[in-house]
Amino acid sequence: xxxxxxxxxxxxxxxxxxxxxxxxxxxxxxxxxxxxxxxxxxxxxxxxxxxxxxxxxxxxxxxxxxxxxxxxxxxxxxxxxxxxxxxxxxxxxxxxxxxxxxxxxxxxxxxxxxxxxxxxxxxxxxxxxxxxxxxxxxxxxxxxxxxxxxxxxxxxxxxxxxxxxxxxxxxxxxxxxxxxxxxxxxxxxxxxxxxxxxxxxxxxxxxxxxxxxxxxxxxxxxxxxxxxxxxxxxxxxxxxxxxxxxxxxxxxxxxxxxxxxxxxxxxxxxxxxxxxxxxxxxxxxxxxxxxxxxxxxxxxxxxxx
Length: 305
What we know:
Helix content: 10-25%
Shape: elongated
Strand order of the largest sheet: 2-9-8-5
Distance between the termini: 124 Å
Largest sheet: 4 strands, mixed
Number of strands: 18
Radius of gyration: 36 Å
Number of helices: 5
Order of helices and strands: HEEEEEEEEEEEEEEEEEEHHHH
């Protein structure tokens, strides 16, 4: 009987040992753990996720495959939004990663030149390239460091105003920027027009090949220097009754618009400017293309309308 008891005890110890060994074997690596709990990607990019622990092969799924797809742990960002990437083993254990997908942003802006020369009254086009080429938002803000020397519109067209140097900068919405140093060659605004074609800087941004005359405008320099109230009063008084629109001050405002190629809706005003040799319409013009001097003069002149 004692011998049988010993056999039973040994059997129970053996069973207990196997059970404990099995429990340890299953417990080791039974919980899944994702290499990343969160990911932030831009549209078109990808990242690899890995999993430790678990039993057998893994099944990968995405809560929204239109935003982020997954195959064997490789996550591909497809559109803006968020999705949850989940991995599940053969025993139903799971782990996950929260993925946020953003627009593909500009990482670099390239200009076709870092420095350039332009004559006063002439224009030059600055051309832009983006990295990556398929960036989602390529909206740019253009600026000149000295608008009395050179101005730039929303399309990157630079116009020389007077002799000097200005830094032309373009900046993306995520604050990536590039610049070009522009040297303007020509006479300064302190000199008078000699009507020989060498100084058109006073008179605006279009048709620079035309030799402008001061008589073409109410205020010939209203795009390149700030007007004073005294000269406005003097000019308006002397030209009263001879305006196109019935208001000299309004004519002075209109000619600033016209020098930028504004397409007038009023038939009589439109026909008047279309008859001027210095004017041509620019459908792409927006009021954001005005330089700071023009904005100031328009605001001042409107007080007299």
